[in-house]
Prior knowledge:
A: 5-stranded mixed beta sheet; 57 strands; B: 10 strands; 45% helix
Amino acid sequence: xxxxxxxxxxxxCVNATANGFSQEGKISLDVRGMKLKKAFSLLEEKxxxxxxxxxxxxxxxxxxxxxxxxxxxxxxxxxxxxxxxLKYQVLKDGLVIIVSPQMDIVADSSVKGxxxxxxxxxxxxxxxxxKGTNRGTSTDAAGKFSIDVPSKGVLVFSFVGFxxxxxRPGDQVNLSIRLFPENKILNDVxxxxxxxxxxxxxxxAIGVASRKDFGDVAVSNTAQxxxxxxxxxxxxxxxxxxxxxxxxxxxxxxxxxxxxPLYVIxxxxxxxxxxxxxxxxxxxxxxxxxxxxxxAIYGAQGANGVVIITTRHPKISRPKIxxxxxxxxxxxxxxxxxxNAAQYTDLVKEWYVNYGQPLPPRLSTxxxxxxxxDWQKEMFRTGKITEHHINLAGATENVAYSFSFGYTKQESQxxxxxxxxxxxxxxxxxxxxxxxxxxxxxxxSSQLQKGVSADILNGLRMPPYISVYDSTNLLGGYGxxxxxxxGNDAQNPLIQPHLRDVKNRALNGYLQLYGEVDLIKGLKFxxxxxxxxxxNQKYNYNPTYAGNQLVTQDQINENYNYALxxxxxxxxxxxxxxxxxxxxxTAGNSYRDGGLGRSISLVGSNFANDxxxxxGVAKTVTFGxxxxxxxxxxxxxxxRLNYTLLDKYILTATIRQDATSLFSxxxxxxxxxxVGLGWRLYNEPFIRNISFLSDLKLRGSWGRTGNSNIAxxxxxxxxxxxxxxxxxxxxxxxxVLINGATIAIPSTPNLKWETTSTTDVGIDAALFKxxxxxxxxYYYRNNQNLLVSVPLALSTGYxxxxxxxxxxxxxxxxxxxxxxxxxxxxxxxxNDFTYSLNVNANYNKNSVTSLGTQGAAPIIGGAFYxxxxxxxxxxxxxxxxxxxxxxxxxxxxxxxxxxxxxxARQKTGDPNAEYQSGLLPGDRIFKxxxxxxxxxxxxxxxxxxxxxKWLYGVNLxxxxxxxxxxxxxxxxxxxxxxxxxxxxxxxxxxxFNAKTTVLKRWEQPGDITDIAxxxxxxxxxANLRNSSWFVENGAYARIRNVTIGYTIPAAxxxxxxxxxxxxxxxxxxxxxLFTFTKYSGYDPEVTEDSRSAQDLIFSRGIDQGAVPxxxxxxxxxxxxx
Amino acid sequence: xxxxxxxxxxxxxxxxxxxxxxxxxxxxxxxxxxxxxVQFNEAIVATYAVFNHQGMMSREWYFIFDLLANDAERAxxxxxxxxxxxxxxxxxxxxxxxxxWSSLYRMIFRANFAMHVMESWTPKDADEQAxxxxxxxxxxxxRGFAYFNLVTNWGRVPLKMDYATSxxxxxxxxxxxxxxxxxxxxxxxxxxxxxxxxxxxxxxxITKGAAIAFLGRTYLFEKKYQQAQDQLVQLTTAPYHYSxxxxxxxxxxxxxxxxxxxxxAVNHVYTTDxxxxxxxxxxxGTDARTAHTGRAQEYGFNDWQNVTASNALVTAQHYPxxxxxxxxLDPRSKLLYYSDAADGGDTEYCDxxxxxxxxxxxxxxxxxxxxxxxxxxxxxxxxxxxxxxTHVTRYADVLLMLxxxxxxxxxxxxxxxxxxxxxxxxxxxxxxxxxxxxxQDLARAALRRERHIELAGEQSRWFDLARWGISKQxxxxxxxxxxxxxxxxxxxxxxxxxxxxxxxNPALASDVANEWN
Lengths: 1121, 517
């Protein structure tokens, strides 16, 4: 709906000048059947007046006929309006406004006032205009102004560097206006590969989250800063254990080997380990490059997106010290209801009866009825977490410096693990002379992960009548269940946390150096170096203990490795504006070297006693494994052209050539081009004048990127001698182990780059003075020649031994990810109340399009416990889709089974046909999907996908006076999970403890339930076969973070503590406060700890009892000195 | 501008492509490694190493065949994969069976690979020439052994006769007769180039005798009795010097590598005491420079007691006296299992322990395995690490196979019965002899009983019952289905083709009926 003011603007813009009209002229007119609009313009032309009107107000289809001679112009106007309800009014400066009766225009009034900045200082030279006119003035040295305004008029205050403000004075005659620094979203500089661009010139899909978006919140892991904040970016926590790191997935899974993106820190390529070792307080913003035109400059490393981290760099200021810290605790957010001892014993007895096995002795004793231990209670605890971070920073004209130190300690909510990290970061930037700029950054972190977590699934399966400690167990002193006595060989989950002495240390450091020189005007050369140092030492000692029926002997494992790698890059940047042509060219080269590395692991055993936990005192020490160097190298050349015409038409083109040692000589080189186009519609005159628009841009891009996240030397046929030369066979009377050598891992000589072609279109708009930002995008990522670790036929004879997998890495498949992304942001203000709401959503469809060369056999994976493979990757389905039988119901009685068998016999014509082999009352009946009367493999079907179709985030930030609040919600939808723990906790296949839901199990004919009988024949009837019974809706919405803060006003602060502090804010944060989900496991955010990147792809979403995400509460403090 | 250009060129021309020729310093390639006799030997040793892989003699082999053939029976601690074997409820995903299949094919792969790398071996001298022939013969035998077990357990299976085919995923199944022809050919090719004896430090490798025994066994399984007899009879004369071990217990002790009865056994040894998880899949991994077996602990009554000696085995010890038809208890019952006096087993253990014999607590354990257990010299095994070698074929087995040939041919039943009696006359056994006048039927029955008792717990019965075509008849009688349990069905004569094989081998996928075989 066009409003009045808008029309005014429009008309005024077309009729460029309007000032000092008289209305005294006389004119002659002769019109017949003319539209009012045309008549007005005739009048304007002849009478030298300006008439303002809203076209909407003019009666539709109305025409006028009039003949007058030398008549005063206003009289003519009166005659023209005669048959309408319209009136006219003359303004002070001679403008004539056509008004409809609804409008009530009164004369101008004079308004005066003062314009101040946010600190209350007067602003001089602020432009003040009456909206829709060119009437204007500006403020004087004291920030004062005075202007005449029509009563419904609107004043616009604008000043360079500040956000323009519109005020309707109404009845006020004395205004006090505050202008705030401009929200520079559009002129913001966005970090891109090898440089930066103004946001307005971007043609790619780039998501940025900065400190403002993070909120002043506490997170235990840096990647959590962007969880749910950027459309199309998913942050998967590796585990609920502290220090376990995260995986970022950009726009769905587009690779079969490794979907992790490239990490770039302050412009220099890095890796996920370094990223995870950063302190979140050192991060200024995180930019995610999603489309090909943005990532193609990283070529072979870009296919899974690029995550660019910018650390905090000081701006010009006096030295400042700031302290950030929090302390809090974490708890599990959900617990299961488990059977007590009596219920458990009852269940196990039934199991043994049903299975026809003799009952193990302990179960018939009275002690088996007494609950001794709530294993969940023993395994979970309240974990304390704390972090301290101090930063000293400042900058002068020539030097900027920042020094920070951080320390965090986090205890796991599961006994008995803790994580500590200390970080030191030094950051320097110097301008030397007029042309040179240098920078140095050193980051050093030391991490210690101590202890091990209780094995949750083991604990859940323990008999409740076993106590935690048992002094009669001379080997370790823990209560144990054994298969001989209890028929249950779950291990007491507390033994390992308590007895094992585990310390994993990591020292990570990186050094970044750069030098920049301005060669000639617009031409800059930059050389940068990034070196990474990692040292890990793992140490694991256990004394001799009996955990179930397997006695674990005392043993120590020590593992040492270091890795030094570096990258050296040089590039030129040329920027210039030639009239309407803006050009920015970047070109350079890059050399990345996996560098040096060595690792060794040793195993020690045979300790005299438990006093010393050190390999030096072990009587037997054997070599475990060792490796050295031979890491990947890359040589790359790249170039990018940005061209902008008239600030409207944008072209970005990039090309990169990558060559790597990962492939054989013939397949080393890959070329990765991209092109992007943008059209800034906002700068077109016909759009420019739509007043509610602040910006509008259409963008599109196409490009090709690669992925080289593979292990080296896969193209070579490598000799296998086992780990530590353990391919052996004993010969001779003393049976001496003789070494053997063979091949265990298949090679693929023709491995080559996998490529991803991405097409991307989008529209970015800012509305209402940038208050509302909208970005909508569509993408299509086509992944070809995907590197796939394809399971091999067992009959090939590969793998099958520890450390050698029975699969082969080949370029075997193609897949696509396509979808939409939407981001909406709105920032507003109501007096002292400020708020911003950001919503993002991503719909992604993943599908395999071909499985190339391996006979197009589907890739089968995702087996768990005794359940055979439950994922299937084949054309037309998402990668790693769940696949299996469809569960129907638990057979009620024999009559129920007979009914099905009758159908089977009728349909097959075989009088002995069975609907489902081995089916007994109380077993699960599966659906005959293909309708042939019997349940066979052919009845398996796709049961869902672990790749969420929808990702969304909602972030709300609010401020009122000195209070601030931030709420972040993140969720996924249209996703399935496999609740593998049901196998044990509700499957009752084996005599383990279970959830109380099994109290409703099938016990006698007539029982109608979804829990099958105890002691079912799990082999043949296969109640626990791969079926939809395990598949659950994995959608969730999680309140990630709620933070409420209070900033102590400067006045009170000074009153309280003199001038010691410059700022003081305290806050409370709750992480994972609420989770809305139908999933029945511990946590719908199924984590993938200790599994490889490939497992993440083919066994994604299979919940096998990993440590769930904790609910955490923290109290934090931010102090500035 | 010129200096700038030079600067630019230097900078951008700096990276040489040769930097990308990164050398793999962590492993050799097959081309850079297999150059001399030492490495060719390693290729063969790696093939032997498969004997201790999963599915094989370090663990699953004894569970699979003892449980399937009802030599061993489940005890209540037995859960999981092995439990399915006890009542024929296993599916095509049973890990034990999947591992068996995989390891047999891994043995084939490694043999193929060894033969492949030896193609480029030009021996330096006559000694090397002989070694090359020996290694190739060993590879043939190992491949023959794998196909023997594949064809007997699965029937039609894919044939992979060279390195290139080995690597292929899609290979269809060959007919049973084609696989048998390969087995015959493999053992036949092995015989000429294998030595009768090895130098002492090489003892445990496949001998000419082992090749003859297996060729004979192959013919026997194919019911080519005369050809079988022609092979097996060779082993009873020089240059072969096999003899029955006077002590049955010695045959199943840590020292059994020194028994004169060994024709071929899988060697086991434990080298360190921190690798107990090795047999659960740690082979060739970080904790696995060892070659032990877990049988002593897994079967042992004072340890994990996963299984007992089956009722059928105990019952079989009681039979009519061959001479006077009175009740007779085979003397081997006391060597096979512990039990109460009534069941005929050994009623005491720890005879050789320092503290002296301990009464066997029958009430707690029932009939438990004594064979392959160290309980006469120690109270517990304390760790699942036994070094007692697993017999694959021994001289008693050869004699009984030969006896079977005589009996089945029918012309000289007398010789057959004599051979049975030879086995019964082992000094530590001394069972009553059968009269030489037995009819063919009675001789056959005596032979079958003799194999059941003499080779109990040696993974022989499963193959014997299948060969005699009486698996279902015997096993469903001995082992009727219990509550919720399944009986032995016709399909159980063959093992199921692993699902994972079907999933990745499209040439075989459609050739499997009823998700089984």
